[in-house]
Amino acid sequence: MTRSPDSNDCRDCLAAMAHRLAQPMTALRGGIELGLMGKRSVADYRSLLEQSLQLADNMAQMIISLRDLGESGAPGGPPQYVCLEATATEVLAEMEGVAQSRELRLQLEVERAVKVRANPERLREALQSLLGWVIQNSAGGGVLAVGLSASGGEARVLLSPPRLDLQYLQIKVLEDITTPGLLFSHAAKNGALGWAINQRLLDGLGGKLEILTDGPDAGCVRVRFPLAPESAAL
Questions:
Q1: Domain boundary among 71, 96, 121
Q2: pLDDT range class, residue 12, cuts 50, 70, 90
Q3: Are residues 32 and 141 in the same domain?
Q4: Centroid of chain to Cα 176
Q5: Residue 212, domain extent
Q6: Do the strands 104-110 and 154-160 form a parallel or antiparallel pair, or are they unpaired?
Q7: pTM exceeds 0.90, yes or no
Q8: Considering its fold, how many domains does the chain have in total?
């Protein structure tokens, strides 16, 4: 982000993120002050604590996003030929608890074993970040399927949540923005910072992130990677 040719974009980005972080902090302080004003019932205190916990979670998520934002453009280690199925299996196991807290059940569907050329650790981190974002933005419980397939010289990862709680236009406005500072500024203002971070992480691995809007997979999130030569020959 600091390498953006236009420092105004970076300032806009930081201002937008600071504003989003200040909102839950102000609400949390207000809730604590309200709880200290006079005597209240146990139910009232419990409600205030639940609201405070949710606000604290929101701030924690924003701080994690800031960390990911800083790391999204960092160079990774040397690439290797990586089996997508093994990486996806590891990621789903790590995220099972998070999914269960949102009443989601993760399911891996492998149409074909494929390999991609990427740094194994960065690939695992990128897929874990993306799956976490999809879980966070899923509306309602059910099965969240992660499908692996190959077509046209590409390896494809398809994440199919029951329903995404996100407006497509929030993502659409980011499609043609390539300058990092401007991208993150617009993303922060439009509530799509997590998407922009995942986009950058996957771009660095040669992947293409998109939300499908037509056909049977409309509303699903897809990542496309170039197939490793040995997989393309199968």
A1: 71
A2: low
A3: no
A4: 19
A5: 80-232
A6: unpaired
A7: no
A8: 2
